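Re: that chain you flagged

S.,

Sorry for the slow reply, it's been a week of failed gels. I finally had a moment to sit down with the sequence you sent. For the record, here it is as I used it:
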Amino acid sequence: MKENLQTKPMLGTGIYTIPDMASILGIPYSKVLRWTNTFWNDRFGSQYDHAYSWNVDLTKAVNFHTLIEIYTFYELSQAGVKTKEILNAHDILSKQFDTFYPFATKEILKNIRTDGSKVLFEQKNGSIYTVDASKQFKLDFIREFFKNLDFDSNSLAIRFWPIGKEKTIVCDPTRQFGQPIIKGTNIQAETIYRMYLADEPLDFIASIYEISTKNVKDAIELHKRAA
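Prediction finished late last night. Pasting the structure tokens below so you have them in one place:
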């Protein structure tokens, strides 16, 4: 039976509005809105009888696992894979691994590949097939490794490092509702960025919050990317 993960606001699952997702992932707002409504709500929601979002004021919000799924969708799209191929792969992998969130599952993300047109999946025995109805084997591929996630013992994503693990910004759904924070603190990256926009010196910001200037620069980098 598929895991019964609720998407309504619950402590520890993360709360991300459409603007939040666009900012954290660096994806245009219009795409995030369209994908959430058309694919996760309408297509996957009706197929799996599972709610992927809920209404918050005048927008929608999703949990951490849907955030990661949308990021995976975006990365595959950027690699050149057509929307139809990605959606079909999601359907097949969801059934194969019995999960509502195949694009946020460790074994899938670790072994997913693309040749720029198809979604490919490498099995434990080393064989590789295209994730479509035919499951044709295909050996020429571009290795796509998902490096910016941490996983729990159930192989579901639990933390996301939006600008890379060499940086100090992390999204952890168990802290500050999953909003980007400085690693090891509850200080939101947005708070640091707002002080920067107010023309406060970086050293001053760092001293006020007792963090390093690298922490400050990383928070600025995250939000500048989305600006």
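What I noticed first: The two ends are 42 Å apart (CA to CA).

Talk soon,
D.
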